[in-house]
Amino acid sequence: MEATEKKVIEKALEGDRNAVKLLYDRYSDFLTAICSRFFPARVDQCDILQDSFVKIFSSLDRFVYKGEGSLKAWMKQITINECLKTLRNRKRSVPIVYEGELRDTEEEDDSGPPDLTDVPAGVIHRMIQELPEGYRAVFNLFALERKPHKEIARLLGISESTSASQFARAKGLLAKKIIEYSSNNKVNKKR
Prior knowledge:
This protein is an all-alpha fold.
């Protein structure tokens, strides 16, 4: 796209509808992917994306341009915050179990991380989406957003030790799913 980020922001702030549409078109797929890491249901992703864009466009005048890519990072953070807000609201109305979920799958596996060589990224993404909501939230924040457990605990309203244990359990479930996928793939290739 020939329009620079800074120019598009300036035009959007002036009320140019084409600039607003360009920003939406340019970043909606990226922000939807972020929503999908936290919420597998398309309806949830669309709702959060809409809430995110409302917040983005209503606070665009407070955005401080720091170079190419700074808008994308700012929008990403707003979207993550909207995802977390939705999780917290759900936790109030329908408890999200963080401790004690899936006790029968918590076996520690000391064999190291599974081999991801033959597992497509889309399959791994789907596996992450299949994690229980609490596990998925902690996994995304720790492994993908690089947030420390102390911050995750604050963001989700859980203890730091719960965050760490949920990450370990999520990692264990993912490892199990990856091993099963790899095993099934090898069996299907032999046929």
